[in-house]
UniProtKB/TrEMBL annotation:
InterPro entries: DUF1329 (IPR010752)
Entry protein name: DUF1329 domain-containing protein
Highest taxon in the source lineage: Bacteria
């Protein structure tokens, strides 16, 4: 039996106090020793931060659906755009129990690397992450118990998908303001880390680089072959090299840095800058600060893989003028998130004035992301869902043989134009490409991640 020692608002008061001083994660006890010992996060928080029913005083409980009629009960647990979607656009959010086992919030090798290397990271004189002896990072979250906004952002930036190699087969639907389907796309997104790898190695001896990342479109026919290659430097002050192949011109061209704030193809609301809420090198942004610490509804549990999808992981839809603007989604109460703000100091022509990122302290991953235009008005949200890819019928395994953990879907909503790009990580897309979290012995670098590769993919 658990004896209740604290009044109802104790947890929220403590989070507010901690926001001002950069304290460790956890309210009743430090979080990370518990994750390291058992994976159980529940003893770090009072009951009100672990139970949506207690938090809302019985107004919302697991199994309920949040809609326009009851969303006020959880308004403070949603980012402003998600709240508006529910309140005015017919979105529904299914509520489930909170995940208390932290091992279900990471890929197993990434969590192992985080625990193994805890305390070995530091920021150098330029605010780049290095080991204590000044070498590139050696895997996992460098700052699992982050104390400031730069450390929190480093956890997002160094290993986006948290696998040494990730290949996402993506199916995208773009919804017009009137609710009609305007565009559909199939594309592949591949990430290969050269440093900050869970295996602790430096791939190909490329210590000066962080990752190779490419994207190529396979459908519809009029954009098939359009492809881009990002080469990221380890030094986060440097802009990536961005090259693209456009089939209409049959050549590779170099793109300018500010191309990161434009759609890659017509109709989408997705920018390169949006990726993982850290699509640009972290030191090309500045004025980082923590502006809040609070519980949050986040789409982070296994139910997002277990429910609401078909055999290709495509999801049921609802809401908006035509009933197809939003995916069916499952949210749970996250006991503690940190809200980080930053400004695009390295981009004089950026259309943004700032970004705001809500980060789950348990795994250091973002759960909501809003950007603001030059006037300071809300512009876009980039909302992810994550899950272990495992249920009672199947388990997708990662490179370690454990259940894979990855993103499941994203809502990318331009709230000003009211255009929605919603996309899933599908099992397979046009061209026969499949999602994978291992190279499986394939030379993915030469196949997908060079200038010659994107030219060949575009010409195929």
């Amino acid at each position: 039996m658990r004896i209740k020692k604290y009044d109802f608002d104790y947890g929220r008061r403590m989070l507010l106090q901690k926001a001002a001083v950069g304290a460790s994660a956890g309210v009743l006890a430090p979080l990370w020793p518990m994750i390291g010992n058992t994976g159980d996060t529940s003893k770090a928080y009072p009951d009100e931060l672990l139970s949506i029913s207690m938090y809302t005083k019985g107004k919302i409980k697991p199994g309920d659906v949040v809609d326009a009629n009851n969303v006020e009960a959880v308004k403070d647990l949603l980012d402003p755009i998600a709240y508006q979607q529910v309140k005015t656009m017919g979105r529904r959010i299914n509520i489930v129990e909170s995940t208390k086992d932290a091992t279900k919030l990471f890929p197993a090798p990434y969590l192992a690397a985080t625990l193994k290397n805890k305390g070995k990271a530091k920021l150098d004189a330029n605010n780049n992450v290095v080991t204590q002896d000044g070498q590139p990072w050696i895997g996992g979250n460098p700052f699992p118990d982050f104390k400031n906004a730069i450390e929190a952002t480093a956890n997002l930036t160094l290993a986006w998908g948290r696998h040494d190699y990730s290949q996402y087969a993506v199916r995208d639907w773009d919804i017009a303001p009137d609710g009609t389907l305007a565009y559909t796309y199939d594309f592949v997104w591949a990430e290969l880390n050269t440093t900050a790898r869970s295996d602790g190695k430096v791939w190909g001896g490329k210590k000066d680089l962080l990752r190779y990342q490419s994207v190529w479109f396979t459908a519809p026919q009029d954009v098939a072959g359009t492809s881009f290659l990002n080469t990221w430097y380890y030094d986060q002050r440097k802009f990536p090299d961005l090259q693209g192949y456009l089939p209409a011109f049959k050549r590779v061209r170099q793109f300018p840095t500010n191309q990161r704030f434009e759609p890659l193809v017509p109709g989408v609301t997705i920018f390169l800058s949006d990726a993982w809420a850290a699509g640009d090198p972290m030191l090309t942004w500045g004025n980082y600060k923590i502006v809040g610490r609070k519980p949050m509804l986040g789409f982070v549990g296994g139910r997002n893989f277990n429910g609401g999808y078909n055999a290709n992981y495509e999801r049921k839809v609802h809401g908006g003028p035509k009933g197809q603007t939003f995916f069916e989604t499952y949210a749970e109460l996250i006991p503690e998130t940190v809200i980080v703000e930053a400004e695009p100091t390295g981009y004089p022509r950026a259309p943004l004035s700032k970004k705001r990122t809500w980060i789950d302290v348990r795994n250091g991953m973002y759960v909501a992301y809003n950007t603001y235009d030059r006037r300071g008005e809300m512009w876009k949200s980039f909302e992810p869902a994550y899950a272990q890819y495992s249920n009672d019928k199947m388990t997708v395994k990662d490179e370690s043989g454990n259940p894979s953990w990855s993103w499941v879907y994203v809502h990318s909503h331009d709230i000003q134009a009211n255009r929605m790009s919603r996309f899933v990580q599908a099992k397979e897309i046009t061209g026969g490409y499949k999602s994978s979290y291992s190279t499986n012995g394939v030379d993915v670098y030469n196949k997908y991640l060079t200038v010659q590769a994107i030219q060949r993919l575009g010409s195929a």
